[in-house]
Amino acid sequence: MINFSFDGKNYTAQKGDTLAAALLRNGIGLVGRSFKYHRPRGIMTAGVEEPNALVTIGEGGRTEPNTRATDVFVYEGLVAKSQNRWPNLSFDIGAVFGLAAPVISAGFYYKTFFGSAKRWMFYEHFIRRAAGLGNAPTETDPDRFSQRAAFCDVLVVGAGPAGLSAALEAVEAGKRVILVEQDNILGSSLIRDPQELDGAWVEATAERIRAAGGRILTRTTASGYWEHDLVTLTQRIAEPGQIPLQGVAQRLWHIRAAKVILATGSIERPMAFAHNDRPGVMLSQAVRTYVHRFGVVPGKRVVIATNNDDAYKTAHALQAAGAEVVAILDARPAPAGADSGLPVHNNAVPLSTEGARHCLKSVTALVDGQAQSWHADLLAVSGGFTPVVHLHMQAGGTLDWNDAAQAFVPAISRQNVTTIGGAADPKPVFKMVPVSKPKKSFIDFQNDVTLSDVDLAWAEGYRSVEHLKRYTTLGMATDQGKLSNMAALGRLAEKQGVAIHEAGLTTFRPPYTPVTMGLLAGAGAKDAGAHVRRLALYDVHAAKNPIWQPLGYWFRPRAYPAGSETLAQAALREAKAVRSTVGMTDVSTLAKFEVSGPDAAAFLEIICATTVNKLAVGRGRYTFMLREDGFVFDDGTVWRLEENRYLLTSSTGGADRMATHISYVRQYLCPHLRVSAVNVQEHYAGIAVAGPKAKVALSALIGEEPPRHMSTVPAVIAGVPVIILAASYSGERAFEIYVEASHAGAVWAACETEVMEQDGALYGLEAMEFLRIEKGHLVVGGEVDGRMTPHDLALDKMLNKTGGYVGASGLSRPALSETGRRQLVGLEAIDGNNIPEGAMLVTHEGVSPQGHVSAAAFRIIEGGSIALGQLTDGFARHGEELIATSPTRGQKARVRVVAPHFYDTAGERYRD
Amino acid sequence: MSRYSAFGLLRGAFNGQKHWQPAWRDPEPKTHYDIIIIGGGGHGLATAYYLAKVHGLKNIAVLEKGWIGGGNTGRNTTIVRSNYRLKPLHDLFEFGLKMWEHLSDELNYNVMFSPRGAMFLGHSDADMTKLAERGDAMRCDGIDADLMTRDEVAKLEPLLDMSRSARFPIEGGLIQRRGGTARHDAVAWGYARGADSLGVDIIQKCEVTGFIRDGDAVVGVETTRGRINAGRVGICVAGNSGHVAGLAGIKLPVESQTLQAMVTEGVKPMLNSVIMSQSLHCYISQSDKGGIVFGGDPDNWPSYAQRGNPMVMEHAVAQGLALVPALSRLRMVRTWSGVTDMSFDGAPIIGETPVENLFLNGGWCYGGFKATPASGWTYAHTLATGKPHALNAPFALDRFERGATIDETGTGPMPNSR
Amino acid sequence: MMQITCPHCGPRAQAEFVYERTVDSVVALDASPEDAMRTLFTRDNPRGVDDEIWRHTYGCRAWMVVTRHRVTNEISAIRAVGPEVLP
To answer: Is the ipTM of this complex over 0.90?
Structure first.
């Protein structure tokens, strides 16, 4: 005995019950409300195709709305609630929508609610509230979802008799086999019809499969068939809402299979007749499942409507269970066989049902053209069988029409996939045409689409199956059209006067059954799928409790506030230290490439738009790189470490892009060059030491005269070999020290001691911004925004006159040298206001901008707001006054256009 | 055309809604049209509508190889906005956004344009500065944009993860309150019904298989339903731009890629706006039926498959759940894909081609839906007059060889790096 | 997600690879400016088979040319590119 609750009342279930079985066991027939008309609905199926019996399961962050009661196994303490009803399930105010059904037919919303957009939003507010089904949880999901990959020779989907046999055969032939079954036990149709095979066969077969090394996954659905025989499986480890034993609620499998066998069976079809949606109308095979698998008899007086032989098994099962079969309505004109003792009516089709208090009371049918009624509390329906061809079609396969079964079956496979069993060879049925009034003849039960909706769509010209689907919302519900598609196609074909297979078919796309979002995200939900790369010196920084700044994959110290300093105060103090004594900062994330070999210089002259081959050993220079279309996309420095060995640095943010570019040029464009280009970004950590006392500090560190500006030497600091590059981003005499990352801590500590000795400070990215803006140095992602030419950035004088670099051709396009281009300028505030970064540059209020502020800062020592910007024809506009305006922040400043260098324009600070 | 109204629906209650006429005819193709538009998506149908409505042309056909609205019009995530940084883009999209505001009345077809706000989230101070720059560029050109504080974002969308320890903590946002969503199918159907009523022939299941040339000029098309002569021909086929232009011997700066989207089962209202992110590549909104609509990056390789990919999908979902953890227990019920014509600067291509009488409207990448009215209006102008409209002039095909690209993201000519 | 057979590593999930560009869009270093721009800014973009440059980025990092059908995703050939290995 298992305790569970439904809508706040406690009930008990038997071990192995689905929630649907347990509800039926407790005499509960009314389980949910439909989407549009809020019609009372019961349990129609015993499987994943259930359109009606949707409930919300679980509590808190484990709440799973819209769970099919037929697809959740009851566990101790399960909490289920009905949904889409107010105030309660049996009395739902929303049912008034049903009264309005004649007005709110298919697509009614396209024909009304006109007026302004705001007016539509007023109506929409109520429509949105009425729509939707369950409520999403608002709390954080406490459980984990895992993801796994696997490979096999044969993946078998479906553990009915066909799937079990196929898996056994494959595994005994020595194949690596995975068999998956969405149910929690094996057998599929044999669970419903246990008499068809020796009861022990399923377990014995499973045992043999396992013994031979096969893997069997139950409660696992093959939900997607992708390219190159990749199948995604969703495995329920805990039931919806259940606390998982090991914290993992579900597992997602990516299976790459050499061969896939689909033994997915078929889904029984309902029939279209008036009020065919009433609780008490159930699919025939589902009835049998409840009787045989769960020992629950869903009715006492039963009418069966069928167009095939299979439903007769239901009649026998019901009789054996003690129910009374009052009529079998067989659509076929003549008796199919000798079924003595059953009240069979041939040429009989259901017309309507009647009910009271959400229960079925009677069934009316047309028998030989005459209406006839029976009292009944259960109507078992079998309108034929729809093979589960979803995965076959997802794999790109085509379908054939099987006229005897009135069904589509797999035809050509586009991947290594075969369909076997009932999915390939459905049972023959008699072709039926609905005779009932179309108005209340539902075909999409959840979305309340009736035959008359299909008729209306047809009349209004929505005649392709896709238009029909979209206009009526047919097949768009959580059951994904598993029960409705064929009925709609049948009606469409009838209207068109063609056979069903000529009417068209919608495409099956993943997933086969809905998949939990948390499962798709897996562990990625925690970090948005973007792992953080940790600096080699992370612990050193963390101990100083800096303000961190995200930058690409990295977090870097933005400032190191002392005491109660704000970010701005700390950054200004740090920048002042660099200007007056010395500062040090971590520059490890810069992109770095070691380029070596006899053709290294030639290779670099392809990558860089500046000359390289004249560089003397031990010297370096600033460089920049163009995309093939001629725009600047990165900059950095290039250093000749040895005769045939260079180091190239470029921006942090562009590091991956540059690595790919260099590799592409080397491997694809220049395979003939004798050169090796190695990405050493994370091999070296980098420390910059900058300021008027940097040289003194460095002398102490390396015990010799430091290299002059733009020179490089190898050295040893704290016993660790390093490369010293005398380069400056800050505008002061400065050195970048590169050290193998694993030894960076010792070098940093030594540097810090010397820097502090000189009354220096650590500085972060914010101070670095202040310094470089004042100096007029560019930043990739700021001034270098991917839309600027070398000329726009005043770099054109450095271009390699001999050409040959990537981007030279692109640069020759006419629009890249026309007037009216944005050009790099400096800006200084003239009204005492701070220039807002990102602000627009306008000549006066109310006109379109002529540029923008790409970076703003302060004169570090003197104070005063300065900025860099892009301005139309800016080179010729120095001295002009503009407004830098930011309407979104309510800020503006009057600015003067000046040269983009505010500090030491002569470069005297670099000289010793 | 029978007019749509609440009264008409009420009347239908008494006749089983039997009085409605087909929304469009199903005509046989004529032997000659003044203008043929290839492609019966939203853009093509809107173009036909404005050619008839604004330019008074009567002899127009839209040729659709399948069913109208079946391409990217019916496969996008229905977002409508004009919040672009660069002027040619925000001017064009804003022109469209203003049209959206009256489109239901204009077409007498409720396209359910719901301006509930399109919000970009910023995850760092640097993001917020970039958002301010975008907003300032828009505001200076008369387009609405508002910066939002963290608290304002949290108030608008209480289910966002506002924790400081998030991988991409939310620092604020930029909202375009006039942005929102619309019902994508209704746009195609509304324009089709409007165009049809003005005499445009909408011919479905009619695939163009070649162009008929007279010297340098196109004078008609070969189709699966026969030869049709034309004065001017406009290509408007999104992901198949390269293919159809190829039939005329033109190679385009376009690569076709798959963009997939997905939707969850319907739930009661939980999201109030359209949520996009500056650092993450996903966008989320809730449809009127309650499903959470999800989009992500395109598959960054060429494809005409109209099929998705679990790798890209799982990544987009991971990013979405990082923003809105409460989506964890919802279930993805449907996925679909469209073939996008990724241009080599991320901006559309509208205007003349090197072949006389043949015009192109394409290269919309993954942003075409919201442009539908503006695209139709300006392309109609170009097809009617043979000249660019002021708003589509910057988007001429020759801008690539000239170097006048409109590169919103500044990432250059490779669509897969966008 | 496709499976791509790296010439150096064997069959691997597509997640390990990154697409770069088509072979027809490779701009040779010695191309004339006109040819270079035509190559850069136009594509065959066929609704069928094309030669594409991919990289085993999250594997051996080698480049390769993948001949692939853009509708069916059938890969008919893969060849390695890059310098010959020196003796």
So the answer is: yes
